[in-house]
Design a protein that fits this description.
The structure is a single chain. The protein is mainly α. The protein has 2 domains: about 10-80, Winged helix-like DNA-binding domain superfamily/Winged helix DNA-binding domain (Arc Repressor Mutant, subunit A, Orthogonal Bundle), CATH 1.10.10; about 85-225, GntR ligand-binding domain-like (Four Helix Bundle (Hemerythrin (Met), subunit A), Up-down Bundle). Helix content is about 75%, strand content about 5%. The protein has helices at about 10-35, 45-50, 55-70, 85-110, 115-135, 135-155, 155-165, 165-180, 185-200, 205-225; strands at about 40-45, 70-75, 80. It has a 3-stranded antiparallel beta sheet. Strand 2 and strand 3 form a beta hairpin.
């Protein structure tokens, strides 16, 4: 009896499917982080597919990734809920983020390429401009690129996996509360300090700057206890 061989999808088709999933993830993550999808709200694959103009399979795969990152909760036979925001959970997240971010900053300072170091210098200048103009929109945009570049430059897939589980939750928490409790100019300047240390290859300075940033973020998180969600 002749054995059937499963047909493989062409590489181009696989890449296309992956790019649609990435596109769906990007838009959904942004919608959750910027609170267009509110904490506790119910979402459906069908509605999101129609809203974004992307098929249900990429939407489903993106939601599964978001569930791993704790931005949504998938309840079998009940639906999909955008996760709630909790200060105590955020503080526990920061305990882990402090350790991993210090490692990433050190590793990036040691391993970044010449081209990447130049991009860190440019990012530092952008952060400093955001600090001077108190530009929250500009800060949010460059912060995402900064986080991704740090992980890329560190060249540690395990640290990258840990950071991917924390950055979106941290960005959403920041977006919800920064107007009430955050010092945007200071936060932007502290990001610039990390970027410049990495650009200069100064591992210890990068680690110290990362600790200073996490000190500020922890203080900001504790200050939100007195604000409304």
């Amino acid at each position: 009896m002749r054995r059937k061989v499963a047909k493989r999808r062409p590489a181009s088709a696989a890449r296309s499917a992956q790019s649609l999933t990435d596109k769906a993830y990007f838009y959904l993550e942004q919608m959750i982080v910027t609170l267009r999808l509110r904490p506790g709200s119910a979402v459906s694959e069908t509605e999101l597919s129609g809203q974004l103009g992307i098929g249900r399979t990429p939407i489903r795969e993106a939601l599964q990734r978001l569930a791993r990152e704790r931005l949504v909760v998938i309840l079998p036979r009940r639906g999909i809920i955008v996760s709630e925001i909790n200060v105590n959970s955020q503080l526990r997240l920061l305990e882990v983020r402090r350790v991993v971010e210090r490692l990433v900053a050190r590793s990036a300072a040691r391993r970044a390429s010449v081209e990447t170091r130049q991009r860190f210098r440019e990012i530092a200048a952008t952060f400093e401009q955001c600090a001077k103009s108190n530009d929250d929109i500009g800060f949010m945009a460059v912060d995402r690129e900064f986080n991704e570049l740090c992980v890329e430059a560190a060249r540690n897939e395990f640290a990258a996996g840990a950071m991917s589980l924390m950055h979106s939750l941290s960005r959403r928490f920041w977006y919800l509360h920064y107007k009430q409790a955050a010092d945007l100019p200071l936060t932007a300047k502290l990001h610039a300090d990390i970027a410049r240390a990495i650009a200069s290859g100064k591992e210890e300075a990068a680690a110290v700057a990362a600790d200073r940033l996490l000190d500020t973020i922890e203080a900001f998180t504790r200050a939100t206890v007195t604000t409304d969600f």
